[in-house]
Amino acid sequence: MRVRSVVSRSGLMAVACGVALAAGAGFANAQALEETVSERDALKACEKKICEIVVKKEAGGGDFACTLTKTWAKDKIKEGIEKKRLSWSLGNARCVIDVGMKRADILEAMSKPTHTIELAPQTVKCQVEWEKDTLDVAVTLSPKIQFKGGKAEKAWLGVKNIEAPAVIRGAIWTVAQAEDYFGLFHTDMVAEINEFTGQKCVKAMAGN
User: Fold this and answer.
1) In the 3-class helix/strand/coil scheme, how is 124-146 assigned residue by residue?
2) Is the dihedral of CA 95, 199, 76, 6 positive or negative?
3) Has this prediction a pTM greater than 0.70?
4) Tell me: the pLDDT tens digits for 93-114?
5) 3-class DSSP assignment, residue 65
6) Coil, strand or helix: which one is 11?
7) How far apart are CA 17 and CA 130, in angstroms?
8) What are the residue boundaries of the structural domains of the chain, listed by start?
9) Residue 121 carries which DSSP code?
10) CA-CA distances (angstroms) from residue 47 to 29, 120, 142?
11) Mean pLDDT, the chain, as a whole number?
């Protein structure tokens, strides 16, 4: 799945959600999961929290913590993953994750010559449409991001555990392993992180 396309609105905070949507074949005709106004507002508030740390670079203050919910339309998912020569024939998808990062880690990643952020295990919980029902998927990740000169240089999702129906569990593992061993989404993740911590954060903090 093309992570850059799928998580373009929430950058560094939501990059982990992509792997939970990385597989699916043989299903169609799903009922609609639709993005809500409250979801969009919550995403913007989370972006602002992390951007305040990135842009202001203040050592004082708490660590970053936020609950993210993001819904993707089937057409958007298909558009992204087909460019990776993968397929998506499920429906819309909605994921929720509690994200946490230490303020010191974020500041050091932005200011030190080199720094690696290793996040504690975090679980992405998703609902994916299938015919007249939804499939529940939970993926536990321990992401790692290497920074050089304030820019992300390498990134790993670090999939630790997958809970999903048997019909898609194997496919998710296959895609997850392809990422960690062969960097299937590496370029997209790194580019998205750098765009978010750069232009998007400056825009998010404009006027503050």
Assistant:
1) EEEEEEECCEEEEEEEEECCEEE
2) negative
3) yes
4) 888 888 888 999 999 999 999 9
5) strand
6) helix
7) 19
8) 3-204
9) P
10) 33, 20, 20
11) 74
